[in-house]
Amino acid sequence: MKLFRYFLIFGVLFVFGACQTIKDVTHSLSSFSSLRFKIENVTEFKIAGVPIATKQSLSDFSPIDAVKIGQEVAKNKLPVSFIINIAVKNPNTGLQGTRPIPVKLKQFDWTLFIDGTKTISGKLAREYEYPASTELGHLPLEVSLDLFEFFGNRGYEGIINLALSLGGLKQNPSKLAIEAIPTFSTPFGNFQAPKVRITSDSFN
After folding, report:
1. Going by CATH, does the domain composed of 33-198 fall within 1.10.20?
2. What is the pTM of this model?
3. Would you call 85 helix, strand, or coil by DSSP?
């Protein structure tokens, strides 16, 4: 009889604990919020290998650099590379009485829009982890594309001015937008968020 009571009590405690765990997980999942993203700036912008961070007009290029870029345009090409720095906010801090949840960004299928034009798509090269903290995290998105392919109709000066507005001395990140489908890893499993549009205006 004592052994029976022991197993009965153990069973009740086990069921109660399991139910409580399920409630905790359900509550945490119901209060889980996706990461928020915002474009901060653009760095390391290069046109045909020429850095433009300190330039704001065509006259700022040296004759050698101008010839190098002109040779690419003459071939109907203008390769550029740069890094889009994205600020990342994890809203699952636990400050509103919910459980703090660290989030790992496992996948990030993205498409880049420049000045309203759809350009290239890509994926993350590795995973990024964001703790349950009020401090912003960061996501550096490395981009390489041929500007001429998408903006060749603007002519030599038009393409260069566009590049300068993106990564030059007076850059304007509002010309950039990213559409992405993030997949997160949490202590409760993977979670694929709906498509999000990321701009420099606000966290989305």
Report:
1. no
2. 0.83
3. strand
